[in-house]
């Protein structure tokens, strides 16, 4: 390997967005595409067994091992903050839930950017383009694409009873959360194929992309910063990146574009390290500011889930089913023979979308219901039968930050979500626990005599419930918004509607885009992985469109 290399496109981050982009851009044999991933290959067996997320999160082989700053809204607690560090990125360690959000999310993005391209009816075709939905093609879903969507391969009596109780509480049954209005209760659809996790490396890199001669993949390669140049007219251009690979520092050059797809933590951090960010922050940490962009690392949004646990009688849950060696052996045998049962489980199986109070104009809560309970993620299951009803505020008003700590790329950034920092979020937290209690009190669950183990019925007032939420709530791993897009006159927007990085002077930095969940102006009303793929699908079209324009000679403006 030499100390420099040149490509047409350099994609930084082989996660959900990066894998799709690599596939689309390298489809043109004339485009030389480099995909860079800091983690290793996705050949760890627990990546592919659905329940293996338990062994991937918190594992340095597959997780960046981030943690949040102590958070006042969480009564001083710090949370583990998993981010995928392997081929496939977060799609290799996430909950596998296929969810688009609500149509109003994307219509809001369109208003925020002034671009109709982000309206629901314009993003729906981008979702459908890469879908391979088990129902087949119809008005709402695609078939034959790379991204497999299947029904879950299990059911539980207690989950069926919870669904019935939710209906009795006024939440309609739903067999498809992805038609633009996800209000309802039903089992989640998952990104799996025949009982195996279906990550973006399988979907978009293997086998076609890996066989293309114009495609190059570098794993275990750490980007140190972007390289920038000043053009003849005084504007800036991103020309490539400096990386460390196999212990050697080298420069890679992009003839057309560098695309940052390092996620809502990695992308703003890399921009800041490269001198693009809040000038005072950068200078304070020894980075020379190149473009003063106050929005880089701001606007962090996440879904905070409040985990309520209820003990049960007259049924078995995973708590006791997996409590003996014989039970574990039966679970393993079922998966080995049929690819069904608890080892095929997504972390959450049953979902519900509803309103925290009647005056809410749209569903603003999402439930993830599980036939198990534990004190905290990574802790042992309880020794008694129970279920967990986790509920999150889909549209939080709290905003946090991602900021560099030093000029060294090896130093993790400071992540400060600022959960529950607004009165609105604290009110929704309190009301969401009341909704949980109302569902559990319905007749459908009465045969199982559920009793509230956590948080406990002694907490009743708004203040008590909001404080309690700070004690027991945890992230559901949906950080977005830290490089948000916006209108040209929005000084805090990091990218424009076509995801080109702005220069803080009314223009854009040539040759540089951000394409991942960090560009969301507001968080979607659901899980974030598949919306990230949609974003990448849209961006791939724009990048290729710009390439065609660049290759077409401009007509002469004057003739002799």
Overall tally of structural domains? 2
Distance between the termini: 50 Å
Outline type = globular
Low-confidence stretches: 554-560
Mean pLDDT: 94
Strand content: 15-25%
Helicity level, as a percent range?
Answer: 25-40%
Biggest sheet character: 8 strands, mixed
Give Rg in angstroms.
Answer: 24 Å
**Can you say what the CATH homologous superfamily of the largest domain is?**
FAD/NAD(P)-binding domain
What is the CATH architecture descriptor of the largest domain? Answer: 3-Layer(bba) Sandwich
Write down how many β-strands occur, each being a DSSP E stretch of 2 or more residues.
25
Task: Determine the number of helices (DSSP H or I, runs of at least 4 residues).
Answer: 14
User: What is the fold-level CATH name, i.e. the topology of the largest domain?
Assistant: FAD/NAD(P)-binding domain
Pfam family, one: GMC_oxred_C
Keywords: FAD, Flavoprotein, Oxidoreductase
Organism: Pigmentiphaga litoralis
Cofactor: FAD
Spell out the key features of this protein.
560 residues, alpha/beta, FAD/NAD(P)-binding domain, Cholesterol Oxidase, domain 2, 2 domains, eight-stranded mixed beta sheet, seven-stranded antiparallel beta sheet, 26% helix, disordered C terminus
Structure report:
This protein has 560 residues and is an alpha/beta fold. It folds into two domains: 1-149 and 189-302 and 400-410 and 478-548, FAD/NAD(P)-binding domain (3-Layer(bba) Sandwich); 153-187 and 304-393 and 420-472, Cholesterol Oxidase, domain 2, CATH 3.30.410. Helices cover 26% and strands 22% of the residues. It contains 14 helices and 25 strands. The protein has helices spanning 16-25, 45-48, 53-56, 103-113, 120-129, 157-168, 200-205, 263-273, 279-284, 318-321, 325-338, 423-440, 462-472, 529-551; strands spanning 4-12, 33-36, 66-67, 80-81, 131-133, 147-149, 184-187, 192-193, 196-197, 215-218, 221-230, 236-245, 248-260, 276-277, 291-292, 304-311, 350-354, 365-370, 386-393, 401-403, 414-416, 451-454, 474-475, 500-502, 508-514. Strands 1, 2, 10, 11, 12, 13, 24 and 25 form an eight-stranded mixed β-sheet that branches. Strands 7, 16, 17, 18, 19, 22 and 23 form a seven-stranded antiparallel β-sheet that branches. The chain has a two-stranded antiparallel sheet with strand order 3-4. Helix 1 (16-25) runs parallel beside helix 14 (529-551), helix 5 (120-129) crosses helix 14 and helix 12 crosses helix 13 (462-472). The longest helix is centred in the C-terminal third of the chain and has 23 residues, at 529-551. The protein is globular, with a radius of gyration of 24 Å. Residues 554-560 have low confidence and may be disordered.
